[in-house]
């Protein structure tokens, strides 16, 4: 699903959440019933960091914060620090996460969270002329790996972010 023909909520920090080509397994596209509001839904998240069992939260209950309130939970595991608590609440409690090996780690820039653009590997970054961010990541994190090992959905996976203020691209890498 690449369009928003179902009039689903949009997410400031996760603009491609419904695009299965860019974001692997972030949302489920299947008939189910939201555990928060009880409404039938065709698009939902199946994971949340909370003490209860959550298998289906509709996108509306994610966006309006009702699921986070009901289950006293969050959709994001970790993020870089910023100073604005309201932005933190929007990210952690009203934005769906993304699938990664060790749990989401959301990047920030310009004292705000970046938008998550999707899963990437070396091939995708090369196509976008963004290979230099791999070296930047390796330098900051003190890691060393062969760039070609970075593979979308692979054992060494990349997650691409962009600052919503200055437009800088940033990369996070995770492995199994």
Tell me the structural class: alpha+beta
Task: Characterize the biggest β-sheet.
Answer: 3 strands, antiparallel
- The mean pLDDT is 92
Q: What is the total tally of β strands? A: 10
The number of helical elements comes to: 5
Kindly estimate the percentage of residues that lie in beta strands according to DSSP.
15-25%
General shape: globular
What is the distance, rounded to the nearest whole angstrom, between the alpha carbons of the first and last residues? 27 Å
User: Within the largest sheet, what's the order of strands?
Assistant: 1-2-3
What share of the residues lie within helices? Answer: 10-25%
Helix-strand pattern: EEEHHEHEEEEHHEE
Q: From the alpha-carbon coordinates, what is the Rg to the nearest angstrom?
A: 16 Å
Point out poorly predicted stretches: 1-5
